[in-house]
Amino acid sequence: MENNELKHNTESMKTANQPGIYKLMIFGVLVCIVGTYARFAYDSWQVSLASWIVLFIGAIIAIKGVFKILDA
What we know:
- It contains 3 helices and no strands.
- The protein is an all-alpha fold.
- It has one domain (14-68).
- It is rod-shaped and about 55 Å long.
């Protein structure tokens, strides 16, 4: 009969479940929220440009956390 045990103790699962990765993704999402709020809070092209930059930086941070999980 097959071994039907769940293999949650593998090294990749331990790496993927590190709290630091999820903290990085949460930080990225929070930065995205700030960037999105700033896009709609003011009506200036300078602030709009800066908020787009903040939004993309937050997205890159969050995606970096996702890729760390996928790399595990």
